[in-house]
Amino acid sequence: MVSSRGPASDESDLYEGETHVHMLDASPRNQPGGTCHGLTEKGLHLVRIRSSGPLSGDNQGARLELDRVHVSLLGALRHRDLSPRGVTQLADSITAIINENPAVYLGFYNRAGSVSLKMHAFQLLPGIGQSKASRMVKARGRLGWDTLDAVSANCEIDAAAALGVRLAEEMQDPTSKPSLLELLVRAA
Question: Which of 2, 68, 71, 90 is deepest in the core (most CB within 10 A)?
């Protein structure tokens, strides 16, 4: 839901269906009606939010419901405008979202293929080189994995955290290609 005083109509389409945000940062002196930085759950959009009650650093990473009364979405936020605390929280919040909605992200591990003659999509993840990607493809087999926990166990990685770090890096540099954020999360 978008506040009636929220983003412009062309921007509101980006937030259609968004019901929750993960709070990235709130000033310790945040008063009721103050703005905070957040991450939408469905589209992983960086946004400014307003709360009718005070939010503090204790709320960092919290999942908040957008309800127009208590928490409202104000509009887009650029990565470069995030506070240092928000930047630090970003990958953890994405990882939490991945763990809360694993089916969407499990598809990446089950369908990932070559992105070029020399590179597999698994190599887009931090710490995954060519030989590790080959072992992951072999471990996946024809049937794939049933859970992110199975990916983590079979591949000896934290599947949600690796994907969370990659998506956070793409938010920092929106020109990075291929973009898992666009292919996996925001694909229409």
Answer: 90
pTM: 0.84
Contacts of 44 (CB under 8 A, 6+ apart): 94, 97, 167, 171, 181, 185, 186
* Tally of CA atoms within 13 A in the half-sphere of 169 that contains its CB: 14
What distance lies between CA 137 and its chain's CA centroid? 24
Distances in Å between the Cα of 76 and the Cα atoms of 12, 21, 48, 95 are: 10, 13, 6, 21
Structure tokens given for 119: 């590179």
Kindly list the domain boundaries of the chain, sorted by start residue.
9-81, 101-185
DSSP 8-class letter at 145: -
Which one is the CATH code of 101-185: 2.30.40.10, 2.60.40.10, 3.40.50.720, 1.10.150.280? 1.10.150.280
Q: How far apart are CA 188 and CA 166, in angstroms?
A: 20
Give the confidence band of 156 by pLDDT, cuts at 50, 70, 90: very high
Please report, as a single letter, which amino acid is at residue 112. Answer: A
* Burial class of residue 106 in the structure, from the number of CB atoms within 10 Å of its CB (0-12 exposed, 13-18 middle, 19+ buried): buried
pLDDT, one tens digit per residue, over 9-59 is 456 677 888 999 998 987 544 555 578 899 999 999 999 988 777 665 567
